């Protein structure tokens, strides 16, 4: 059994994907080929924003926006301690300081009620993470940002295709960043990312930064990056994008079946009524994770832990947040209990049944 079955997806769309790759090979336009602009336009329409700017990874989608906003030494960026390191890595790389706010007990997204207390005169950006495929509670966060003259950047690396009050993730904040890492709901065959915004000037700055700060050939107006989206990856994503809405629906069906079969046995994901999720992961919480993992391993079922170490406990942040102070108890407790189960659009019911049986065995409720 595969945790994410990329091979099943490839076989389903093989003809279109192979043709897309061959088209790039035939043109030899590997950098800034027409497929990049085509993908940008298609995803801007899909998300519902004015601009989509392709970049080389989800990490660079975050970093280019922060660079465009001139975040640097002396600035603070408020974010979640319960996310992948990339969210904070880009802040540290620019010499700024991450300021953590604990997460909500149900969604594990950043808790808007706790953000204002974390703001200081040095705060420049609020960076909420839309974790596990569900948008963070962005409406009050946006209001708080406006009230304090701050910018809001959604880390949508796991939530492309999700909605909140009928609007898609990526179009809900000043800017948003997403990832096309192969395991994402919309993934390429390597690294890739995209920046979304309605801000014309921000889009222009990101376009310059991603290409070595060039405003014209060999004219470099800014310190930039080599952060372009490869044409091959754009072509693959275009082939997959046609199937993405159907895959989102399939993910939601798989998740609904997990919910039904595991209800009352484990702590299940909570999706707010105003939201839809793309279930980038299907993450439960269990009191004795090691036992459940062992039961799954014995049954040949892969699992993953997203994430076993909250960021305030990571060695790279040891000086910023002393270990042992435990200022973020919800994130710390979640890190001890979360467990992600196999989740992808091609997961058949019989495999789900095996997963559920193993989980129940692990918590002592197996037959």
Brief descriptors of the model:
367 residues, alpha/beta, Aspartate Aminotransferase, domain 2, Aspartate Aminotransferase, domain 1, seven-stranded mixed β-sheet, three-stranded antiparallel β-sheet, 12 helices, 14 strands, 14% strand, globular
Q: What would you say this structure looks like, in words?
A:
The chain has 367 residues and is an alpha/beta fold. It folds into two domains: 236 residues, Aspartate Aminotransferase, domain 2; 119 residues, Aspartate Aminotransferase, domain 1. Helix content is 37%, strand content 14%. The chain is built from twelve helices and 14 strands. The strands form four sheets. It has a seven-stranded mixed beta sheet, with helices on both faces. Strands 7-6-12 form a three-stranded antiparallel beta sheet, with no helix packed on it. Helix 6 links the parallel strand 4 and strand 5. Helix 2 packs antiparallel against helix 8 and helix 3 crosses helix 8. The mean pLDDT is 96.
